[in-house]
Amino acid sequence: MYLGLDLGTSGLRALLVEASGRVVGSAEADYLVSHPHPGWSEQRPEDWVTAAERCVESLRQAFPAEWPALRGIGLSGQMHGAVLVDAAGDVLRPAILWNDTRPHVEAAALDATDPVRALSGNIVFPGFTAPKLLWLEQHEPEVFARIHKVLLPKDYLRLWLTGGYVGDMSDAAGTSWLDVGVRDWSDTLLQAGHMRRDQMPDLVEGSEASGDLRSSLQADWGLDHSVVVAGGGGDNAVAACGVGCLSEGQGFVSLGTSGVLLAARDRFAPMPETAVHSFCHAVPGRWYQMGVSLAATDCLNWLSGRLGQSPGELANVLPDEITGPAGVTFLPYLSGERTPHNDSAIRGAFVGLDIASDNAQLTQAVMEGVAFAMRDSLEALKATGADLKQVLAIGGGNRSRFWVETLATVLDLPMHLPKAGEFGAALGAARLAMAADGQGAVDLLMTPPEVAEVIPPRSDLRDQYEARYQTYRALYPAIKGAVA
Length: 484
Known about the structure:
Helix content: 25-40%
CATH superfamily of the largest domain: ATPase, nucleotide binding domain
Number of helices: 17
CATH class of the largest domain: Alpha Beta
Structural class: alpha/beta
Strand content: 15-25%
CATH topology of the largest domain: Nucleotidyltransferase, domain 5
Number of strands: 24
Largest sheet: 7 strands, mixed
Distance between the termini: 55 Å
C-alpha cells in the first residue's frame, strides 16, 4: 500500500493506493487561509499536520485490513510558500503562501538583478519564495534573524513525518534560489536573495527516498516495519505524474481555480521573457514548462456570484456544441495575469456588451476569455520550442463539454477527456512513493489515464475563433491603459 498526500491551499487530500495502481480509498480535511492585510495570504503549518493526522486516522479506520501493508508515502504540495523554522524546528510565524502579493517591490528588484533570470530560468514573480524572505528581512528582522531553515509547505509535512530537512527539485524550482538547469541550489541566487545554503533543505529527486517514517509515528499508526517517504514535488509536477505526462510532446490543460497549460520537456529550455514557468519535473532528467492564467473557474465563480446562479446552472444553459464566438469578449484578468503579461495590476473587462446580452452570452464570453488566455499560454510555450500534439483536459471546467470544445477549437488541439477516477496530484504522489520503494521505473509507473472521449477542434469554426482571439489580444494594451 502507498499513501499520496496532496497539500492544497484549502485542504489536504490523502489517497491510499495498491502497488497495482488500484485506488483503495481517500480522505480529505480542510483548513483555513488567513488574510490579515490586503494582499496577504497565510496559513498555520500546524493545521497541515492536524489535517494529515485526521486523514490518516480516517483511512486507518476505514481500511483496517489494508492499512498495515503501507510501504511508502509520497508528497505533493502548493508551491512557493515560506515556512520558517528555528534551530529547534519550531515554526517562527505563519507560512506565507503562493498567492501572497506583499513582496511585489522585492520581486521586481530581484528580477532586475543579474543573473537571476539566467540561472533560475524564470521571472521572479511576487508569489515566489525568495522575495518573501527579502520582505521579511525588511519588515520582520527579528524573525529573519532566527531562521534556521526555510521549507516549502509539503516539506514541513516531511519534517513531521521523518524529522529531516529535505526538499525536492520540482518544488525548489519555484523559489528563485535554484539553478533549474543544474538541479541544485545556486550560491549566486541565494546571495542575491540574502540567504545561505545552510538555510536550505537537502535536495532529492521526487521519485527518490527522502527518509523513513519516524518510529514514533510508526507505532502510533500501528505499523511494525519501515515506511519510505519519497521526495515528492510541487503540485503541478506531481499532477503530471498522476496523468502520465513525463515526455516531450505530452501535456495537459487544467481548468481549476487558475488555468494551467503544462508541457513536459526532455530538456531545460527557459525563456523567462514569455512569462512561462520553466521548472524541474518530479522525476530525474525531466523538466516541464507551463503557462498560467490566474483565474479560470474563478471567473465563472465570480460571474455566478454576480448573477445569483450556481456555476453549474450557468454552464447548463449552454449547449453541448459550440456555434461560434459570443458577441461579447471577456478578459479574465480578475486577479491580474501571469502568462504572457506578468501584470499583477491588470484587471478584467467585458467588451461589446449589448442591451440584449443575457446570462448565457456572458457565461459563453467568460468561457471563451479563459480559453483565449490558455491560447496566450500555448503561444508562449511554442516560443520556447514546446510542441504539443494533444492535451489531456482536467480540472472542474472539463465537466462542461461546451467549454472543452471551445478550448479545443481555440487551441486547435484535440482535447482528451479522462474517464472518471483518480488521476491528480494525490495519485501522482502515491506513484512517486512506489518509485522510491523500488516498485518500478517511473515511465512504467506513471501511465496516462484511460480516455473516455476525444473532443477535436471544430475546423468549420476555427477561423471565427481565430479572429476573435486576435481581437482579444489587441484589447490588453487598451485595458491596461484604462487601468493605469
